[in-house]
User: Which sequence fits this backbone?
């Protein structure tokens, strides 16, 4: 066994309280190097009577490592533990003070989880595990009230530019809530809706006023009420990293320079605050001079923004916030943000926009979830033919091991957004590949999200093309694709195993883009078979029971002499299940 590959620390994602009575332990070994791993556990004050040896399961693998996990329910909420690794006739132990070739005497030098304090347990909103999100850019979804259209509004369906107005508004969303209910949506995420000089509203002027081109504050309250009446949760976009240059406090800085009482609200490097040769003399989002960056360490700024967060939670019974450019704001701010939001609504869902490994924000003191762009990139890469099954399984294994289990259950999984090309476009306009990606989305752990219009076949490259107006002419919609989304959404909503069950690859081989994976809980077992090639394929896997059925047709599917053989069309799939 390669000792250098063995890794564990008694904190973060490696040892954490999953609930008030359960501790999750994880440990890492070199890939295919260890046959068995067990956790030797007990209470340090009563080791003999509480000792339990728990066989750990191989939860995931990546290119270099295997990851093992176990759930432990300590008798007294305390836990001392070590790990035993076995390969052939060799066994070694790892504990807090190093490796041992012989069983160490309890409990000196053991790892410790000192006590499960319920107040420290990372709790995520239970409803987010059940949620099917739909992302809407209000300006591009539907024009329900032409009287509030901005000057220069173009014909619905025209080609968008980065300054095009189509006239979408909150009334348009209200007019189409039954459409969302029909497909199975039970949560929506709205991109910014507050007063702003742009169509996208990511440069806010007034954080407590709905932009008049979208409607009024009362319209927003009515929209949320109508959504709640139909069983739909609503989260809004919080743009707290930066504001508009027209934001009154920044205008005061432009006017009065260093003498402005708001000078410390922003990161002004030199006065006057201006843009020269494309570079602002103050910090901004990117290098956009029209989006000055807030100094969120300033107590006045912090209080101003926290008041905004609390205001909308209370004013309209908001269900949560999506946090724009979240990784560029200090952690102190986000800790206070969570406290304020959760006090206003303990069930609020907090989703950060972070495009890379986000563990620092997902330890229970800041966000519940993040927009899982690494997931989207790997899924699209695989189903576009960019990797084999082995590499894809490694990628997914690495992502699963990034975060604690409670985060994995509500991580915000999408396949495209307003900041990426459309899903169908990313998959070379091949609807068969798109369907495979959608099946994976809805049979994988986490909280799935659809970008408006994907379900009826909207295409588009990067911004502005991905931000087309929604197509409401049924004759121009792909209704077969719509029905497919509806089918997969209903399947996921019907079975907890597809939302919270264990995930594992059964087949993921080198030089073969076909995969088989499973989702299971204590009631139902799913296997998902995918032919990610342009040729017909028959996939095989050992199965020793004959009670399998097709999840979409309910047709019985039996193995032959202990081997299941599933024939699939090019880019075809099949979902099997059995009751346990």
Assistant:
């Amino acid at each position: 066994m390669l000792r250098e590959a063995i890794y564990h620390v008694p904190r973060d994602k490696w040892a954490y309280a999953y609930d008030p009575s359960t501790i999750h332990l994880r440990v890492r070994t070199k890939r295919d190097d260890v046959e068995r791993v067990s956790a030797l556990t007990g209470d340090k004050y009563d080791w003999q009577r509480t000792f339990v040896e728990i066989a750990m399961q191989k939860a995931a693998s990546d290119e270099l490592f295997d990851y093992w996990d176990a759930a432990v329910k300590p008798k007294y909420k305390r836990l001392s533990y070590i790990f035993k690794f076995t390969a052939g006739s060799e066994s070694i132990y790892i504990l807090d003070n190093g490796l041992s070739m012989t069983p160490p005497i309890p409990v000196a030098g053991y790892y410790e989880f000192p006590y499960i304090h319920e107040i420290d347990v990372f709790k995520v909103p239970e409803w987010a595990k059940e949620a099917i999100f739909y992302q809407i850019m209000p300006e591009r979804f539907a024009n329900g009230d032409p009287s509030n259209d901005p000057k220069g509004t173009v014909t619905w369906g025209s080609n968008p530019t980065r300054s095009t107005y189509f006239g979408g508004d909150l009334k348009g969303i209200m007019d189409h809530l039954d459409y969302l209910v029909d497909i199975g949506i039970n949560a929506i995420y709205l991109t910014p809706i507050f007063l702003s000089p742009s169509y996208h509203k990511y440069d806010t002027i007034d954080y407590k006023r709905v932009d008049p081109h979208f409607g009024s504050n009362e319209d927003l309250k009515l929209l949320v009420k109508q959504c709640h009446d139909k069983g739909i949760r609503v989260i809004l976009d919080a743009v707290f990293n930066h504001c508009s240059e027209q934001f009154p406090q920044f205008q005061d800085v432009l006017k009065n320079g260093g003498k402005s009482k708001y000078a410390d609200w922003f990161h002004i490097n030199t006065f006057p605050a201006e843009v020269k040769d494309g570079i602002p003399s103050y910090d901004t989002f990117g290098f956009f001079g029209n989006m000055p960056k807030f100094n969120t360490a300033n107590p006045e700024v912090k209080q101003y923004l926290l008041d905004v967060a609390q205001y909308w939670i209370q004013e309209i019974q908001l269900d949560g916030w999506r946090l724009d450019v979240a990784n560029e704001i200090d952690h102190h701010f986000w800790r206070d943000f969570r406290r304020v939001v959760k006090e206003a609504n303990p069930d609020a869902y907090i989703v950060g926009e972070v495009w890379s490994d986000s563990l620092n924000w997902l330890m229970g003191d800041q966000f519940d979830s993040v927009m899982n762009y690494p997931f989207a990139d790997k899924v699209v890469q695989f189903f576009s033919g960019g990797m084999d099954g082995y590499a894809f399984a490694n990628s997914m294994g690495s992502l699963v091991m990034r975060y604690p289990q409670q985060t994995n259950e509500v991580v915000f999984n999408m396949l495209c957004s307003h900041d990426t090309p459309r899903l169908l476009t990313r998959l070379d306009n091949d609807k068969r590949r798109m369907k495979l990606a959608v099946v994976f989305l809805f049979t994988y752990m986490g909280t799935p999200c659809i970008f408006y219009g994907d379900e009826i076949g909207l295409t588009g490259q990067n911004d502005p093309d991905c931000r087309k107006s929604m197509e409401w002419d049924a004759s121009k919609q792909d209704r077969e694709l719509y029905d497919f989304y509806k089918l997969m959404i209903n399947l996921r909503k019907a079975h907890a195993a597809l939302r919270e069950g264990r995930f594992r690859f059964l087949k993921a081989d080198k030089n073969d883009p076909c995969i088989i994976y499973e989702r299971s809980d204590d009631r139902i077992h799913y296997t998902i078979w995918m032919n990610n090639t342009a040729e017909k394929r028959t996939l095989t896997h050992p199965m020793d029971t004959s009670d399998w059925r097709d999840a979409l047709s309910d047709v019985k599917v039996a193995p032959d002499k202990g081997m299941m053989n599933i024939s699939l069309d090019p880019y075809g799939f099949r979902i099997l299940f059995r009751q346990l």
